Amino acid sequence: MRVDVLHGPNLNLLGEREPAIYGKLTLPEIDSRLVAIGKELSCDVRTFQSNHEGALIDYLHATRRLTDAYILNPAGYTHTSVALRDAVIAVAKPAIEVHLSNTEAREAFRHKSLLADVVMGRIQGLGAQGYEWALRALIAHLYAERNA
């Protein structure tokens, strides 16, 4: 079983970028934790971060036959990228959208997710823990699908 985690723009600066909003953990710390949880649960976790919309789309396309599910933190592309939305639809894999902050409690332009209706769920406002819960939820979903 494999789950891929995609991190969007500016998430490479976690730990130093607005820690009051995004927390003090760095992206490598978050990724290491996800990989460790994956190993505990017999799941291969792969992570990828890009500040470029096309690179995120290319990654989805390239991994569509290799992975079973995705965790997506599209960051700013959440609210702007129809192309990323279309790529999520095209790969046709279970996906959970994750945001470190509660986008509903922030600026009005952050209240609309272009991915919300094409992912199986969303976790937001719970910091890095949200990624862990998304991973556990996807693994449970994949096991349930295989045993149905």
The secondary-structure class comes to alpha/beta
Give the total of beta strands: 5
Coarse shape: globular
Q: Strand order, biggest sheet? A: 2-1-3-4-5
Low-confidence stretches: none
Contiguous helical run count? 5
Mean pLDDT: 93
User: What is the C-level CATH assignment?
Assistant: Alpha Beta
Please, could you describe this protein's structure?
The chain is of the alpha/beta class and 148 residues long. The chain has one domain (2-146): Rossmann fold, CATH 3.40.50.9100. 39% of the residues lie in helices and 18% in strands. It has a five-stranded parallel β-sheet, sandwiched between helices. Helix 4 (82-91) links the parallel strand 3 and strand 4. The two termini are 16 Å apart.
